[in-house]
Design a protein that fits this description.
This protein is mostly helical and about 120 residues long. It has five helices and two strands. It has one domain (about 10-115). The chain has a two-stranded antiparallel sheet with strand order 1-2. The radius of gyration is 20 Å and the shape is elongated.
Length: about 120
């Protein structure tokens, strides 16, 4: 006797929802890390230039494996690396890595929140 049970496959919709949730969570996480780094540095900034050069780059919408970036720009914010890693004349005062360490562990929760 044939079974009368029915199964609707929604796998493609589920994968699309997971990809969208991951992309949005990555964007939110790199934005939060950018803001955290701008607010938590120890160095004294005379003109506010370096805070303006701490930026985030969102995930590519076409990429099925979303990834984002944050940090200082290469043009006007290049000297953020000097603060981050130190120089011969300056002690290191990291602000990018600690912000990442605080924000990146929240990525999974942000994805979960979007999938509920």
């Amino acid at each position: 006797m044939p079974s009368r049970s029915r199964f609707d496959w929604n796998g493609d919709d589920f994968v699309a929802r997971v990809e969208q949730a991951a992309r949005e969570a990555v964007d939110e996480t790199v934005d939060a890390a950018r803001d955290d780094a701008a607010l938590s540095h120890e160095w004294i900034n005379r003109d506010g230039q370096l805070q303006e050069e701490i930026v985030s780059e969102h995930a590519d919408p076409a990429d099925p494996n979303p990834s984002g970036k944050f940090g200082t720009t290469r043009r006007r914010g290049f000297y953020g690396l000097f603060h981050e890693e130190g120089t011969v004349r300056e002690f290191e005062r990291p602000f990018i890595r600690p912000a990442a360490d605080r924000q990146f562990p929240t990525l999974a929760d942000r994805i979960r929140r979007r999938l509920k």
